[in-house]
Amino acid sequence: MKITLRLTLISVLLLLSANAIADDWLKTMKDFELTDHMGVTHTMAEYADNEFIVVYIHGSGCPIARLSVPTFLSIRDDYKDQNISFLMLNSFIQDDIPRIRKEAADFKIDFPILKDADQSVARSMGVERTAEVFIVNPRTGKIVFRGPIDDSLGYETQRINTKHNYLRDALDAVMAGESINMNDIPDSKGCLVGFFLS
Description:
Blueprint: H1 2-25, E1 33-36, E2 41-43, E3 52-58, H2 63-78, E4 84-90, H3 97-106, E5 113-115, H4 120-125, E6 133-136, E7 143-147, E8 153-154, E9 157-158, H5 166-175
Parallel strand pairs: 3-4, 4-5
Antiparallel strand pairs: 1-2, 1-5, 3-6, 6-7, 8-9
């Protein structure tokens, strides 16, 4: 009986610990004023009327980030009537505006790529890699989901058939007022974002 009680207690503690880690994984995106690759300035406040904004971590030249762009564009098109804005955030030290603009033209990216020159926005979000996506409440900055778009891409791998559509499922959930169990979401694959030493 004591062993069963002890095992139950351990299970509960592990679950609470996992949930705490998942909650800590979802940070708050700081209020921002950033210029995109076309020279237009954007603020968090301009998206306040949107239900959510979806932020994709961009990095010029990153193979996984490049391969994910068509899927991200497709999801944007599918959800464009649901009052959700789609953006990219570039915090790469080596990427300047001309380089980002060329990448946007080459890959037909037709929404803002915000340049986070001092990396403060990425730091607030806990950004680690490119091709990671964040669903953000633009009124509070609260991040309600972060993870890969789907499971089609990995390091030196690419699946023909996608089994898990993490971003689509997350958007459907949050639009229905549901929360997302981040313990079910794997880490994103992508190029590491190098940060200035603080």
